[in-house]
Write a structure and sequence with these properties.
CATH topology of the largest domain: Immunoglobulin-like
Strand order of the largest sheet: 5-6-2-1-9
CATH superfamily of the largest domain: Immunoglobulins
Number of helices: 2
Number of strands: 9
CATH class of the largest domain: Mainly Beta
Order of helices and strands: HEEEEEEHEEE
């Protein structure tokens, strides 16, 4: 049975469009489906790196348009068992005309901490950083970059 070139071309074009749509959906979809407006920020991405038996968790936030991050309010990460962690490092990004538009927080976590659901308390709201309990999978060098809170 012979298949004509236009048929093969149509099938390949359909597969290309479907894979492009899937990649765009993954790239443009929000970190969390619902986010607390009181937080005045949204999670852009999270990077997790192993450091011996501990972990570094880098959280990149973007301040929502028209909102202002209050640097005087404490920011802390809460585990499912009630442990409260303060950031080990904070980096603010932006300019003097628009204020802080990007925030980076770095947390030092123990192995038990990273296996739990994690929420970030910021401003007057809460952002879900990790929605799934359990140990996340890391690559061969011991790191992972997440664009969704399901890890």
């Amino acid at each position: 049975m012979r298949v004509k070139r236009p048929v093969i071309r149509a099938i390949l074009m359909g597969l290309l469009l479907a894979s492009t749509a899937y990649a765009a959906w993954g790239w443009l979809s929000p970190y969390a489906r619902r986010s607390d407006s009181g937080a005045q920020c949204k999670v852009v991405s999270v990077m997790l790196r192993r450091d011996q038996s501990f972990f570094w968790l880098d959280i990149h936030l973007s301040v929502l348009p028209g909102q202002i991050h209050d640097i005087m309010k404490p920011v802390c990460l809460h585990t499912a068992v009630g442990k409260v962690l303060e950031p080990a490092d904070t980096t603010l990004g932006g300019d003097k005309d628009h204020g802080n538009s990007d925030l980076w927080y770095k947390f030092w976590l123990e192995s038990d901490d990273i296996q739990q659901v994690l929420t970030l308390k910021i401003n007057d709201g809460t952002l879900v950083i990790k929605a799934d309990p359990g140990m996340p999978e890391l690559d061969s060098v011991g790191s992972a970059h997440y664009l969704t809170n399901n890890w």
